[in-house]
TrEMBL record:
It comes from the Eukaryota. This is Lysosomal membrane ascorbate-dependent ferrireductase CYB561A3. It is found in: Late endosome membrane; Lysosome membrane. It comes from Cnemophilus loriae. One of its GO terms (molecular function) is metal ion binding.
Length: 256
C-alpha cells in the first residue's frame, strides 16, 4: 500500500484547523449576546414580580419581598458576570491595567451593594410578617454565597488595588481569586434558581393555580430560571476559554 504524499497528509490537519476556526466565536459578538441575555433576565424577573406578584413597595408586605429576586438576579448574577468578564475584553490586554482593575472592582462592588439591598428586602419582609429567617436550603446557600462574595471582594481589593501588596502575594493569590470568582457565580446561579422554585411552591397553591398544573406564571418563571442558568454557564465557559484569556505579563504575547 502506497504511503500518502505530503499534500494528502496535510489534508487532515488543514481540515481540522478549518473546522476549529469555523467553531471559533469572536469575543465581542459573544459578549453582545451575553449582555442581551443578561438584560432579558433582569427584564423577566421584573415583569414576573410586577405582573404576577403585585409590584414593588417598601411597606414590609410581599411587594417589599419582590425587590429581593430583582436585586439578586441583577447584582449577584448579571452585574457580577459582567465584572468577571472585564479582563476578557481584548482592549485590556495592552496598556495600563489600573483602569481595568478599577472597573472590575467597581462592577463587583455595585453587584455587592445590590445584593445587600436584596437581602435587606427579604429580611424586612420576613420580620414584618413574623416569618422565621434562614431556615431553608435556599437561604443557607444564598447567604453563604454573599459571605464568600464579600471575602472575595475584600481580598481582591487588598491584593490587586492597594499599592503596597507585594508581587509574590498577587501571584500566589491570583489563581485562587480566579477559581472563587467562577465558583461564586455558579453558587449565585444556583441560589437564584432555587429561590425562584421556592417562591413558586409557596405562591401557587390554590386549586386553579397549582404549580403542578403549570399555569402561565410557572411557565414564565421556569423559563426565567433556565435563562439565568444559561447565562451563568456561558460566563463560566468564556472565563475558561484559553484564547480569550489575557496573556501573562511575562509571556511573549504580552511583551509583544
Amino acid at each position: 500500500m502506497a504511503a500518502p504524499n505530503d499534500e494528502e497528509g496535510a489534508v487532515g490537519p488543514r481540515c481540522h484547523h478549518r473546522s476549529t476556526a469555523m467553531l471559533d466565536v469572536p469575543f465581542l459578538p459573544f459578549c453582545a449576546f451575553l449582555g442581551t441575555l443578561g438584560v432579558l433576565c433582569v427584564a423577566m424577573v421584573g415583569t414576573w414580580c410586577q405582573h404576577w406578584r403585585g409590584g414593588f413597595s417598601l411597606d414590609g408586605s410581599s411587594r417589599t419581598f419582590n425587590w429581593h429576586p430583582v436585586l439578586m438576579v441583577t447584582g449577584l448574577v448579571v452585574l457580577y458576570g459582567a465584572a468577571a468578564l472585564v479582563y476578557r475584553i481584548p482592549n485590556t490586554w495592552s496598556g495600563p491595567k489600573l483602569p481595568w482593575k478599577v472597573l472590575h472592582g467597581s462592577l463587583a462592588l455595585g453587584a455587592f451593594v445590590l445584593t445587600v439591598l436584596g437581602l435587606a428586602a427579604v429580611f424586612c419582609f420576613h420580620n414584618s410578617q413574623g416569618t422565621p429567617n434562614m431556615y431553608s436550603l435556599h437561604s443557607w446557600m444564598g447567604l453563604g454565597t454573599v459571605l464568600l462574595f464579600s471575602c472575595q471582594w475584600a481580598a481582591g481589593f487588598g491584593a490587586f488595588l492597594l499599592p503596597w501588596a507585594p508581587t509574590w502575594l498577587r501571584a500566589l493569590y491570583k489563581p485562587i481569586h480566579v477559581f472563587f470568582g467562577s465558583t461564586i457565580l455558579l453558587l449565585s446561579v444556583a441560589s437564584c434558581v432555587s429561590g425562584i422554585n421556592e417562591k413558586l411552591f409557596f405562591s401557587l397553591k390554590n386549586g386553579t393555580m397549582q404549580y403542578k398544573l403549570l399555569p402561565a406564571e410557572a411557565v414564565f418563571a421556569n423559563t426565567l430560571g433556565l435563562l439565568i442558568l444559561i447565562f451563568g454557564v456561558l460566563v463560566v465557559a468564556a472565563l475558561a476559554r484559553p484564547s480569550w484569556k489575557r496573556p501573562d505579563s511575562d509571556s511573549p504575547d504580552s511583551r509583544q
